[in-house]
Amino acid sequence: MDPICHIFLLLLAFHKINASVSSCVTGCSCFQDSFGRSLLCMSALLRQIPASIPQDMRKIRIENSHLTELPRGSFENVSALEYLWLNFNNITVMHIKSLEYLPALKELRLQGNKLSSVPWTVFQDTPALKILDLKHNRLDVLPEHALRYLPNLTYLDLSSNQLTVISRDVFYNWPVYQRSQRVEGQIEAISNAVLALHDNPWICDCRLRGFVQFIKSVGPPIILMNSYLTCSSPKFRAGKFFHEVELNSCMKPLTSALDTNLTVPVGLNVTLTCFVQASPSPAVWWTYALKLLRAFNVSTEPISEETVRSELLIPAARPADAGNYTCTAANFLGNTSVSISLRVGAPWASTTSPDWAPIAPAELGAHVEVRIAKQTVYGITLEWFAAAAAAAEPGETWYTLLVGRYDAVQKDAIYIGPGVNTYSVTDLLPATKYEVCVAVRNQAPRKGQCVVFVTGSDVSQLEQREKLIHIIVIVCAMVLAVPAGMYACTAEARPGCLARCPGACPRRRRQGQAQGAGSKESTLDSLPAGSEDGLCRPEGGRGGRRPPAREEPGKTRPPHRNSADLY
Question: Is the entire prediction scored with pTM above 0.70?
Answer without folding.
Answer: no
